[in-house]
Amino acid sequence: MKNYTSIQNIDNINTWIEEAKELKSNPLKYNELGKNKTLGLLFFNSSLRTRLSTQKAALNLGMNPIVMNVSGDAWGIEFADGTAMNGKTAEHIKEAAAVVSQYCDIIAVRAFPTLTDKEKDESEEVLRSFTKYASVPIVNMESATGHPLQGLTDAITISEHAKISKPKVVLSWAPHIKALPHAVGNSFVQAMQKMDVNFVIANPEGYDLNPQITGDTPIYHDQEEAFKDADFVYTKNWSSYSQYGKILNINADWMITKEKLGNAKFMHCLPVRRNVVVEDAVLDSDSSLVIKQANNRTYAAQLVLKKILENYV
Ligand SMILES: NCCC[C@H](NC(=O)CCC(=O)O)C(=O)O
Ligand SMILES: NC(=O)OP(=O)(O)O
């Protein structure tokens, strides 16, 4: 594998899950593999888990991670081709990516969508430009339309906690005060579509995700019906896709409660707003997997970096 930009880069999710579990049981087994190799982490947006777990993963493989907050700390980067750069941007991605490639053996990038320009977001301008102009492998740390390190993490976590062979997994929309990206939802859908699970999505009318991603996956607009006999409820807010980037209404009654959850396990990528997305009683109970889930971020990232290092030319 050269780049890891999408869940579609996973050739066999069951094999990957087993490999990640092996790394988790012996995280330092390959601590010579990345010796004298540098991982550059570039953040255009905030992060706690991705920032730390990806560095931890690199350290477990013997790599040297270096981190930069691009927004604020670096020069504004221009992505448009052929433009006269007489505005806010000071250097072009052609130079920036080529220069960073001389300092780093792998580059990992976080860049959220605009949520105002659908075409631009769907073109994955930032991630695609790094892939095009960098001369080293690229890892997606959450882009405009996907968060494949999170999706792999979620697949590992479900495999670890499943009590039956084909568990029912529900991806449920939940309320939020801000317009949020579709990336986490998209990658979770793509990961579940590759796994042997009974997978459905629950969201209010107007919040269906990109139909090219959801495909044949059943979508319920009735949360209670979707949650029937669920083993896992994975919760996430996203803004409208059809009325791109908009909050249509708050739908506060879609908040996850202990009563709605029943015997299902609760999952969320974090950060999560308590008593808006999910009530305290869920997060503070044994039903919540969120902390264990976040721990798996390290092993998902470690597996991805290991696969890239093993194929490094
Ligand atoms: N990386 C995990 C989620 C990141 C982002 N959440 C957020 O922006 C939450 C911000 C807030 O709650 O203010 C998202 O939904 O894609
Ligand atoms: N889940 C996740 O990606 O968290 P951060 O945004 O804190 O990295």
TrEMBL record:
Record key words, sorted: Amino-acid biosynthesis, Arginine biosynthesis, Transferase
Reactions catalysed according to its record: N(2)-succinyl-L-ornithine + carbamoyl phosphate = N(2)-succinyl-L-citrulline + phosphate + H(+)
Positions of carbamoyl phosphate binding: S47, L48, R49, T50, W75, R110, H147, P148, L149, Q150, C269, L270, R297
Positions bound to N(2)-succinyl-L-ornithine: E142, H176, K236, R273
Domain Aspartate/ornithine carbamoyltransferase Asp/Orn-binding: 184-305
Gene3D superfamilies (alphabetical): Aspartate/ornithine carbamoyltransferase
Domain Aspartate/ornithine carbamoyltransferase carbamoyl-P binding: start-end pairs: 8-160
Family: Belongs to the aspartate/ornithine carbamoyltransferase superfamily. SOTCase family.
Role of this protein: Catalyzes the transfer of the carbamoyl group from carbamoyl phosphate to the delta-amino group of N(2)-succinyl-L-ornithine to produce N(2)-succinyl-L-citrulline. Is essential for arginine biosynthesis.
Name the record gives this protein: N-succinylornithine carbamoyltransferase
Species whose genome carries this gene: Algibacter aquimarinus
Gene for this chain: argF'
